[in-house]
Amino acid sequence: MFGLILDVTARIHYALRGLMPTNVLLDALHTRRGLKWGVPAMLLAVPYALAAVFCTSQVEAGGSGWFNLLALIFAWNALKFLVAGPLTLMRLLWVLGREANARRRAARALLGEGFGPELVEEPVLTSRRA
């Protein structure tokens, strides 16, 4: 029974994940091309925080209780973007480091095969048997 509930919950979660705009944007930020946009995307937390404050003030002024739910959603989205900025920056630095190491390893491999240093700038994938 517990497995069935867990399975249904997971399926609903992944079905709705593609429909939520903030999750779609955060998924795009975590790609290799999107990592550079993580820190500027932190600025999206500002409108979400302002919307949360507005909804909270509406509730305090005697508005509908549904504004509490909206305030919670807006605050959650603001926190997601605030956390995504530093995470994508750290991940970008890690990826750039791995790419630099791969370039260095490729250059060492070319030098080790007897190619001259002038070919290290642009690695050529040719066979020596020809």
From TrEMBL:
Origin superkingdom: Bacteria
Chain segments annotated as transmembrane: 37-59, 65-94
UniProt keyword list: Membrane, Transmembrane, Transmembrane helix
Protein name: Sulfate permease
Organism: Cryobacterium levicorallinum
